[in-house]
Write a structure and sequence with these properties.
The complex is a heterodimer of chains A (316) and B (297).
Chain A (H helix, E strand, L loop, with lengths): L3 H7 L6 H43 L9 E2 L4 E2 L2 H30 L5 H16 L2 H27 L14 H25 L3 H9 L4 H12 L1 H17 L2 H6 L17 H8 L6 H33 L1
Antiparallel strand pairs in A: 1-2
Chain B lengths: L6 H5 L10 H38 L2 H5 L13 H32 L3 H14 L3 H16 L4 H25 L3 H9 L4 H30 L2 H4 L22 H9 L4 H30 L4
Helix pairs in contact in B: 2-12, 4-7, 4-9, 5-7, 6-7, 7-9, 8-9, 9-12, 11-12
Classes of the chains: A mainly alpha (316), B mainly alpha (297).
Chain lengths: 316, 297
C-alpha cells in the first residue's frame, strides 16, 4: 500500500526456489508417513513371520492339528488354543449378536427424544472404552462367582449334554465367552446402528405408507436393507473377540486341554501368549511366534472382510 | 394378512389399528424385547463402574501415590512407580505416534487423490483391528530382542503402534471437516501448500485433533497386553540412569499381576489402580464428547 509503484511494476513474482523446495518436500514427507502407516502393517507381518520360521520349519502344518504343548519335551501343537479361541468367540457372538442388534434397533428408532438417545449411544460406547484388564479384574471377583451358580444349574439339569458335562470350577470358557460378549457388544451395536440410520428414509416412509407396523418395517425392510453393514459389524466384533487378550487370560483358567464342556478351563491363542511369552526361551519362543502368526492371519482375514462390508455401507 | 377381516368393519372403514390384533401385540412384544436388550447391555457397564468405584475408592489414599508396590503379605504400599511408568510409556508412544499420525493424515486429506489415499485409509482401519497382543509380540521382536533387555522404550513403541491408527483416523476426519473455502481463500491470498496447511487448515482442525489424540492416549494408558513382555514389570522405582532400558512398571500390568494373586492387600491395590484408569477413561471420554458436540468452524 505504501508504494503503489512497486505493485504495478513487478506484478506477481515467482516463488523463490527455497519456498518451492519446502513445499515439495513437505508434501513428500507427508506422503512418506502415510505410506509408512501401511508399511507398519507389512512390517508386523514380516517380523512375526521371521521369528516364527524355526517353528514353522520344525513343526510344519502338523502344528495346527496336534494337541501337545509341552515345553519340557519341546513338543508343540496349537490345536487346543485354536479350539479355545473358536469356542469363546462363538459363545461371545451367540450372546452379543442378538443383544447388540436389539440395542442398535432401539437406538435407531424414535423411542427416545434425540438428546436422551445420544446419551444412551455414549453409554454404550463407554462400554468399549473400559480397559480390558479392568474387565478381567471384575470378571475374577464378580462375574465368575455369579456364573458359577448359573453353571451349576445348567450342569445339574442339562449335564447329559456334552457342552454342560463338567461341573463349573470357576474359570473356564463360559465366563471368558460372557466377558467377551460384553466387550464386543458396543462394536456390534454402534456399527449396526450406523448402518440402520444411514438407510434412506424413503424405505421407512414407503413401508409405513403401505400399512406396515413399526416392527414389520424393521424386520422386513430395514434390517434386510442394512444386512451387509450388520454382517460387517459382526465380523469386526469377531475380530475383536479373537484377539482380545487380558480379560480372557484372567478368567479362562489357562489349561491346554480340549474339552467339549464350556465350563472347562482352556486357553486361547492370545491367553497362551500372555501367559508364556515372558518366560519362554529357544524353540518355545518360535512356537509362540507361530501361534501369533496364525492369530495375525486370522484377524487380518476377518478384519479385511469386515472393512469391505462396512465400506460398502458407507457408500450407500 | 387380515385375519380379523369382517365385512361390517369394512363397510365403515376405520384407519385405527385394533389394540388386540396379532400385529400390534407382536410389535409390543418386540419393543419389550428391545428394551430388555438395552437393559442387558447397560447392566455390565453399571456393575463394572459400581465395583471399581466402591472397591477402588475404599483403598485410595495418599500412600498409594507415594509408595512402591508391597511384597506379598506386607500391609500398605502403593504404586508410585507404576503411575510414573505408565506416564513415561504413554509419553513415548504419544511422541512417536502424534507427529507420525498427523503428517500421514495431512497427506490423506490434503494432498492425495484417489488410490493411495483409499488404500492407506483401508490399511489404517485394518491396523486398528490388529490385536494388541500381536503388537506386543512385534515390539518384542523389534526392540527387546535387539536391545536384549525389557525396556520402557519397547513398551512405548508398542503403544505408539496402537495409538497410530486412532490418531490418523481422527485427524483425517477433522481435516476433512474444515470447509474448502478456507483453503481456497488461503491459496487465493498467495499462500503455499505448506503455509495453507500449517497456518490455516491445522489450526482450524486443532480442537478435533486434540480430542482424538486424547482418546488415543486414554486408550493406550489402559493397554496391558502389549506391555506384558516389552516393559514387563518391576516392583522398584524408575532408575533414570539406565536410560529407561530396564523393566518398567505400569498401572495396567500391576492390575493384571495383583488380580491373579491370593493376597488381599495386593488385590485391593489392583482395584485402586483400576479406579484410576477408569476415572481417566471416563473423564477423557466425557470431555471429548462435549468437545465434539460443540464443533463449530
Amino acid at each position: 500500500m505504501s508504494s503503489p509503484a512497486i505493485n504495478t511494476q513487478s506484478g506477481i513474482q515467482p516463488r523463490s526456489r527455497w519456498s518451492r523446495t519446502l513445499d515439495q518436500s513437505f508434501i513428500w514427507l507427508t506422503r512418506l508417513f502415510a505410506l509408512a502407516v501401511a508399511g507398519t502393517l507389512i512390517w508386523i507381518a514380516i517380523e512375526v513371520a521371521i521369528e516364527a520360521t524355526p517353528a514353522i520349519r520344525q513343526f510344519g502344518f502338523n502344528f495346527l492339528t496336534t494337541t501337545a504343548w509341552n515345553p519340557v519335551a519341546d513338543q508343540y501343537g496349537a490345536l487346543p488354543m485354536i479350539y479355545g479361541t473358536i469356542v469363546t468367540s462363538a459363545i461371545a457372538l451367540l450372546i452379543a449378536v442378538p443383544v447388540g442388534l436389539g440395542v442398535s434397533v432401539f437406538l435407531s428408532e424414535d423411542y427416545l427424544p434425540p438428546k436422551i438417545q445420544l446419551a444412551f449411544v455414549f453409554l454404550v460406547e463407554l462400554l468399549a472404552a473400559i480397559p480390558s484388564v479392568v474387565y478381567g479384574l471384575w470378571g475374577i471377583f464378580v462375574l465368575i462367582p455369579i456364573l458359577r451358580g448359573v453353571g451349576q444349574g445348567l450342569n445339574t439339569y442339562f449335564g447329559w449334554l456334552p457342552i454342560f458335562s463338567t461341573p463349573p470350577v470357576g474359570p473356564g470358557m463360559f465366563p471368558a465367552g460372557v466377558i467377551l460378549s460384553i466387550m464386543i457388544l458396543p462394536t456390534i451395536a454402534a456399527i449396526s446402528r450406523d448402518a440402520l440410520i444411514s438407510l434412506p428414509s424413503d424405505l421407512r416412509q414407503a413401508a409405513v405408507g403401505l400399512g406396515a407396523t413399526r416392527w414389520e418395517t424393521i424386520l422386513k425392510i430395514l434390517l434386510p436393507a442394512a444386512f451387509s453393514g450388520i454382517v460387517g459389524a459382526v465380523m469386526l466384533a469377531l475380530g475383536r473377540a479373537i484377539g482380545e487378550t487380558m480379560a480372557v487370560t484372567m478368567v479362562i483358567g489357562n489349561s491346554n486341554n480340549i474339552s467339549p464342556s464350556i465350563f472347562a478351563p482352556a486357553n486361547t491363542i492370545p491367553s497362551l501368549l500372555a501367559n508364556q511369552f515372558a518366560e519362554a526361551s529357544g524353540i518355545q519362543v518360535a512356537a509362540l511366534m507361530y501361534t501369533a502368526l496364525i492369530l495375525f492371519a486370522l484377524t487380518l482375514l476377518v478384519n479385511i472382510l469386515a472393512q469391505l462390508l462396512v465400506q460398502r455401507v458407507q457408500r450407500i | 394378512m387380515r385375519s380379523n377381516y369382517r365385512p361390517e368393519v369394512a363397510a365403515t372403514p376405520s384407519l385405527k389399528r385394533s389394540p388386540t390384533s396379532p400385529r400390534t401385540l407382536f410389535g409390543i412384544l418386540m419393543t419389550g424385547l428391545v428394551f430388555i436388550c438395552v437393559a442387558l447391555a447397560l447392566l455390565p457397564l453399571l456393575a463394572v463402574l459400581f465395583y471399581v468405584i466402591v472397591q477402588g475408592v475404599s483403598r485410595l489414599n495418599l500412600q498409594v501415590f507415594q509408595e512402591l508396590p508391597p511384597p506379598p503379605l506386607v500391609e500398605g504400599g502403593g504404586f508410585r512407580n507404576a503411575i510414573v511408568g505408565t506416564l513415561i510409556m504413554v509419553g513415548i508412544g504419544a511422541l512417536i505416534s502424534i507427529p507420525f499420525g498427523v503428517l500421514a493424515a495431512i497427506y490423506l486429506s490434503e494432498f492425495s487423490t484417489g488410490k493411495i489415499a483409499k488404500w492407506t485409509r483401508f490399511a489404517t482401519n485394518v491396523l486398528s483391528g490388529v490385536p494388541s497382543i500381536i503388537v506386543g509380540v512385534f515390539a518384542y521382536g523389534v526392540i527387546v530382542l535387539t536391545m536384549k533387555t525389557y525396556s520402557a522404550w519397547a513398551g512405548g513403541f508398542a503403544l505408539s503402534i496402537l495409538m497410530l491408527p486412532i490418531i490418523v483416523r481422527t485427524t483425517d476426519e477433522a481435516l476433512q471437516l474444515v470447509p474448502q473455502e478456507l483453503r481456497q481463500a488461503a491459496v487465493g491470498l498467495g499462500a503455499t501448500d505448506f503455509q495453507t496447511v500449517s497456518r490455516v487448515v491445522l489450526p482450524a482442525a486443532l480442537p478435533a485433533i486434540i480430542t482424538g489424540t486424547t482418546l488415543a492416549i486414554a486408550r493406550a494408558a489402559g493397554e496391558t497386553a502389549p506391555l506384558l513382555f516389552t516393559a514387563l514389570f518391576t516392583q522398584f522405582g524408575i532408575n533414570w540412569s539406565s536410560g529407561l532400558f530396564e523393566p518398567t512398571a505400569s498401572l495396567s500390568v500391576l492390575i493384571y499381576n495383583f488380580a491373579t494373586v491370593p493376597f488381599k492387600n495386593q488385590q485391593e491395590l489392583a482395584w485402586a489402580a483400576s479406579f484410576i484408569l477408569v476415572l481417566m477413561v471416563l473423564i477423557t471420554s466425557v470431555i471429548s464428547r462435549l468437545a465434539t458436540a460443540r464443533r463449530v468452524y
